[in-house]
TrEMBL record:
InterPro entries in the record: AB_hydrolase_fold
Species per Swiss-Prot/TrEMBL record: Victivallis vadensis
Name of this chain's protein: Acetyl xylan esterase AXE1
Stored PANTHER family: ALPHA/BETA-HYDROLASES SUPERFAMILY PROTEIN (PTHR47381), ALPHA_BETA-HYDROLASES SUPERFAMILY PROTEIN (PTHR47381:SF3)
Gene3D superfamilies: alpha/beta hydrolase
Highest taxon in the source lineage: Bacteria
Amino acid sequence: MRMNGFKEVPEAVGKFAFENYPDYPSWRAAALPELKRLLGFDRLERLERKPVVPESLWKRRTPLGTIEKLRFSPEEGEEACIYICLPELPPPYKTFICLQGHSTGMHNSIAVEWQDETVPKAIEGDRDFAIGCLKRGIAAVCLEQRYMGERSSDPEHHPACLLPTLQNLMIGRTAIGDRVYDVDRLIDYLYTRGDIDRTRLGVMGNSGGGTTGMFAGAVLDRITHVIASCSFSSFRGSIGSMFHCACNYVPGLLEYGESADVVGLTAPKPVVIVNGDADEIFPLDEADRQFRRLEAVYRAAGAAGNCVHAVGGGGHRFYAAEAWSAMLPFFQ
Ligand SMILES: [Zn+2]
């Protein structure tokens, strides 16, 4: 919908576009610090990192494995919650951190109702990420994203993204930076457990979860694999061309580059980009163009086969069969 004040977003200036650099190492050395700065992640990295000591809220066995809910503090004054879902296998566990998009929250990942986690719920669009992981013998750690779900004041009607996004503008932070930092702090905790396979520690998400997954894979060295669904297009052709939630916007991002210049920082780690061919808010034609640039980045990084484009037939949702068949060869 076009609104008063709508601007045609100009072609990206892209000072940190991959093509401006002679090789992958020199590009990454320049681009990664700049992306961290734009996200406000450099500020978060300088915060005191107190040990993450979660509190267990409940734990139960299910036919697919054990699910435990815990609460932890990623930074002072902030509380996050997670489900740790472990298959009936001996550790160390191959693991995916699972991120939902704008919705009532992480309860979707374990296929239960948001107001009562004991009541099963059928989940549309393959968004029951933890169930999909457990069925494949993979542990799932479902993180409630900041300002969404249980971390929103009114999860049923709208996420609480707008106000903190505006406040963040005044202090040089961003919602995406905050969310990536929560993933980083969660990994601090996972590394203390002793039962997580550090060589198979992926992040996956759809929509607003895929967005965090894309940036987390780019910024966080400890993430080893990425599945980003219905979040990859061009920035200009998706969030720059139509209404999206405020939390998607990073000041100065188009001066930095485009989506391939973010996800390219993930190389050489395996990344699966998932799109729906009829997803109107993350258009496939723009995704195709950026994916071709992403392939060039991966070739330059000596990892040509490690980025895969999985396209599902339909709209804005996750495509589990397509995504997993692309990821499992890297993950098993
Ligand atoms: Zn939002």
